[in-house]
Structure prediction request, 682 residues.
Amino acid sequence: MLEVKNLHCTVEGKEILRGINLSVRTGEVHAIMGPNGSGKSTFASVLAGNQKYEVTEGEVSFDGMDLLGMSIEDRARAGLFLGFQYPVEIPGVSMANFMKLAVNEQRKYRGLEPLSAGDFLRLMREKSAIVELDSKLTSRAVNEGFSGGEKKKNEIFQMAMLDPKLAILDETDSGLDIDALRIVATGVTKLHRPDNATVVITHYQRLLDYIVPDYVHVLYKGRIIYTGDKSLALKLEEQGYDWLINQYQ
Amino acid sequence: MNRSLEQGLSELYLSNLDMIGEGLPGRLNAARSSFLESFNLSPLPSARDERYRHCDLQKLFAGEWEHYFTPSPEPGQARNRLPIEGYWIELYNGFCPTDDALVVLDNGIIYGSLRVAMREREDLVLKYYNTVADNDGESVVALNSLFMQDGAFVYVPEGVSASLPFVLSFEYGTNDAAQMCFARSLVVVERGAHADVVVSHQSTDNSRVLVDCVRESIVADGGNVNLSEIVRMNGSSTLITGHYLHQKESSRADMLSVWLRGGTTRVNARHDLAGRGCESNFYGLYFGTGNERTDICMTVNHLQPDCTSYESVKGIVSGEAVGAFTGRVYVAPDAQRTSAFQQNRNLQMSDTAKVYTEPQLEIYADDVKCSHGATVGQMDPEAIYYMRQRGIGEEEARRLQMFGFVNDIVSHCPHDGACDFVRELAEARINEL
Ligand SMILES: Nc1ncnc2c1ncn2[C@@H]1O[C@H](COP(=O)(O)OP(=O)(O)O)[C@@H](O)[C@H]1O
Ligand SMILES: [Mg+2]
Prediction:
């Protein structure tokens, strides 16, 4: 589904991604771990199309398409979803309006009719239940006045609404208490299916208690320096990254 | 030697004084000489005048302007009327149609041509007319009082609640020559009465008009007014408006002004909270594109204790447009327990657009809760990125962000029947930006 080859990128002239290779197949769950500043969010942003980052080398194909040649919105419409590490507030725009527009733009891309008002409300209700999102929040402005936990739940709610082929979740588990983590992680697990794929970027093993990854990658200084199975996450939690970094150097 | 503008205008008045005063009360006409005097004493301000830095009246009034002293024929072309059911008063270039009668309802409500009202209800009208407008401080107001021949009049008697909104529809057009118009309105809401008033200023064609317009609104004890204004002038027009609101004890005013378009729009607004326990809420929204210029000066005077005022004015400027906001909240020494809030927020869509904003507080009482603020911001690229990541196109994302920006203003529309229309107008305007 996603094929990343030798991806390099710079921001303000500084090279941050230095040759990433990654292959994600339908039905898989991948975890990307790594110390702070190693380039995890940058990698996710480049895949989403954030124009702050300049791709200097490499190729990415998504569902057979040249991802890097597509606009941000077309990537999203083609089924790529990014759960933001820091979700953005949009004052004055209600969650309901925002989601209605997003859902219908994506439907249009797929040649589907817009949802009727009734069907849309039903979808909102059904999907907000997955992450136990307070129905009051969906009538408020996007992320405005949401607590940290609510913002993260809201990302997963949007993922549920948009039903992407590939979801990249950037530290959706950080800053959550145990209950919120359980709700968010269970939500992600429920949304995972044999016909989609999930990439979770995380620091913690605890998320992976719920979402069992097929592969765990370690990103360090803009490269994937090691790939293992789920036991790697446990080892990293116990021993940190130093042993791997030393081995790499 | 060049004749000054003021000389020219004075001569225009003096040589047409019979026509101007014809059919209007003698004591009204007698008072005009004092307006001539105050107009001559304080010339039209230029940009050198601190208060008119962003709106040079000397320049705007310069050149040849036609002025007609009789109602001009109404335009034939279709206009985008307000889709509001109400008590309509239609004015064209400041005049009601000649044959319009004053409407008197069973419950005592009176509305229609100010000219006719002055003739048929002289005592009633002159009890209020020119009692709150600032003829001494603003030469454009004195000029309006000097040339005033007609306008709109609304009177809601004690305890009466008007069941429909009054729609004051001011339309302007000349078909050819540049024309100067004077427009006037007087709204009186008596003790415990309630009125909804929707005012519209609209160009009917692309011709140049210079409109000097004054509105006085008086709300007596316990009265309540919802007052909206929708401005849709063409790009070569100049609209100078003076809005004077006088509130008595325990009265309440909820206002919305939406300045959608216009060449140059200057607003002098003054809200006097002149009785205890008044409440006054004002929401304003302006748009500027191309070379449009919007200059809003608002003063809220807290003259008595226990009053509350809230003002929020937002603007979106693009192209080379200029937006200016000067807000002043004055709290008199006796006006204890005042609560006043004033803010001006702007979205600057291009580097070439300019915004000047200056909120001021002037407080002479000690037990008060006052705050003010002003911001000039740009579109938030992070929010655009976030929306696009959800599949919303870039243009749509920009629009959505602008809708979000204006949403809290538009959602405070005080008239049920007009809100959807106001929202549609704002959305249509955003779609052009
Ligand atoms: N917009 C930016 N401008 C400058 N440097 C950036 C920017 N975004 C990220 N970086 C730098 O890139 C490196 C990787 O950051 P990031 O991808 O956020 O790491 P991670 O998510 O793994 O913690 C860091 O050194 C960070 O300072
Ligand atoms: Mg990060």
The interface with chain B takes residues 48-51, 71-73, 75-77, 81-82, 84, 87-93, 97-99, 101-102, 105-106, 109, 141, 158, 162 of chain A (CB under 8 Å).
